[in-house]
Amino acid sequence: MTLAQAVERTETFVKPIDAAGLAAFAEKGRNNPNARGTVRRRTVYDGQFRSLTYVGNHTPVVVDEPPHQFGQDTAPAPSEILLSALGGCLCVGVHAVATARGVRIRSMEVTLEGDIGNPAAWGAGGAHKQPAEMGFQAVRAKVVLDADAPREVLAQIVRDADYASPMANCFRNPIPTDVTLA
Predict the structure, then answer these.
(1) For 131, phi and psi rounded to 5 degrees?
(2) For 105-120, how does the pLDDT look when each residue is reduced to its tens digit (9 = 90+)?
(3) How many Cβ atoms sit within 10 Å of the Cβ of residue 31?
(4) Which of 85, 129, 148, 150 is 20 to 30 A off residue 62, Cα-Cα?
């Protein structure tokens, strides 16, 4: 690495988050550790396994299936959206923990892979499986992180972010789920 590259590398960081706001948010959590909110969204089915979920004032999140699973392949599959939620949450957590510890991030990337199958064919006559046998059976995430701290500190930041990640904990912990006909 040349001196010019080293200087540029130390001066180029991702957009920072509001450290004071983050500290106030953390304080609020410490003062009310049982606080909960409710997330509500609406999904509209478009047919041929394609759906649109409306999230605030944003463009709808489109979910589809690939042709080999009878979809149109116009958007990511539900499993891919779920992994993207985990990746996004891990990025948020790593950035938050790094900020709280005074570590600046130059770049971050999370690669994700998960082992999943659909032998039950969504309940349409496939193999009879128990709920624990369906869905992701294993998920792996690797955080590629370039920041102004030693590797050991970065590894602890990643561990702490993973431990507190709402999405990672959705994967780790059973979530009571109630699906009924309205």
Answers:
(1) -50, -40
(2) 999 999 999 999 999 9
(3) 8
(4) 129
